[in-house]
Structures are given as C-alpha cells and as structure tokens.
Amino acid sequence: MSYSVGQVSAFAGVTVRTLHHYDKAGLLSPSDRSHAGYRLYSEADLVRLQQILFYRELGFPLDEITAIFKDPQVDPLERLRARQRQLSEEIARLQRLAEVAERAIEVQKAGVSLTPQERFEVFGEITFDLSYATEAELKWAHSEGQREAMARAAAHTKEDWRQLMGEAAAWRAELLAAFDEGELSNGERAVDLAEEHRLHISRWFTSCPPDMHRRIADDFVADPRAFALVIPPSQQRPGLAAYTRKAVHANAARHAGGRTDSEENQ
Q1: What sign has the CA pseudo-torsion 29, 34, 38, 42?
Q2: Digit-coded pLDDT (tens) for 42-81
Q3: Rounded to two decimals, what is the model's pTM?
Q4: Residues 204, 266: Cα–Cα separation, whole Å
C-alpha cells in the first residue's frame, strides 16, 4: 500500500515541507510515484520515517541521522549511548537551573516590600543584586540563620529599613574615615567598627557569631557584589575590602581570646 505526501504528513505529525526536506537531503525519498508524478511512500518508507523521527526526538542532527543510515562504519548503539550521556548531563544542568529559579523566586518573595521609589529613597546607592542573593540562598539554603535573615528582612517596614540603613551609613562613614586616616586594620578603632557591624547584623537580620562574621567578611574580598552591599562602588577605595576583612578577623580573634599579630596591617 502506498501513501501520498499529504497522508503521511497528517498521520505522522510532520509538515509536507519537512518531508520534502528529508527527500532533498537524501534521508527519506519516496519509493514510488503515482501516474501523475506525485510522491508515494511505501510501508518500508514509513518505518524509516518513524526511525528518523525517533532520532530527531532524541535531538540528533540530520547529518548524524544520515550517517547512521548510510555509513556501515557508524555504530547506532554507540551513538545512542553517547546521546544518552549528553541528555543525562543536560537533565542535570536543567535541574540545577530549576533550583536556581526556585531560589530566585524565594528571594523575591522574601525581598524588601518597597516600591522602586521607596527603595531608592531608603537604599540610595546600595543596590539589590538578585544574582548574588540567589547564590547566597542556594549556598545557605539549609542554614537556619539564612532562613531567619530572609524572614526578618521580609517583615521589616519602610521605617525599619530607614533606621537600619541610617545606622549602616553612619558605620560606613566611620569605616571610611578610619581607612583614610591610616588606622591599622587590627587596631582598636577598626576592630571596634567590625564588632559594630557584627552587632548590626544580629540586631536586624540574624544572630551573627564571630565565625559567621568571618565568612561574611571573606565574601567581601572574594565577591565584589558582597562588598557592594556594604560600601557602594562610588565610595570604595583600593584595598578597603581586604582592610574590612582583616578588621573582622581581628575582632573574631579578640572574641576568642586569640592574638591578632598574624593579621597584616593596612
């Protein structure tokens, strides 16, 4: 029994244009023609079309499908195994992306409930970086402190944000002054400022023991986006992130009763 291009298109779920393309590419040519010269597909042609569509569904490009059918040196099983590995890697990648999207949604849901105008009014140059916040949410997803910080941030009112950002601005001015005046990073002034920053986090977001504060400060040096949440880029100085990190580490050592001699000075 033979089938016209239109019939095959209808029950195979492919366009006539696609069938013509397969014919032109030498991948699937109809075995017969009608008296009027129209293409006719045999049962064997339909079996081959099913195989082509199967490989296409798996993501094989047409040239590779052609090689599988025409080149006796090509091992279809090995090609399928290779494609299986590729699909498994892609599935893993998509699962990671789905998790990132899920965390980004959580960050946005637990974010600051302010209008864009209010955000600018309260935060000024301090900008919210969704990519950094999402990475932090992924990194600390199972941390009780992260969950508490997100929940408390979501519960802050506009006045809460105004007050805490005012505190942060005053602290920032003192840190910049200490740095500009050449205070040692492990000196009393800088270390006291580090302690003030730690208490600020505890007061407004989540309990911040010295060890956690060290990890936060490590991010100041490792990731510019983290330090930009503390000091906007327009106010940063070369070496300021490292200076702040050293002060935080010195403060943590002070809490532990340790020595700070190993900390390098500014």
Answers
A1: negative
A2: 999 999 999 999 999 999 999 899 888 888 888 888 889 9
A3: 0.54
A4: 29
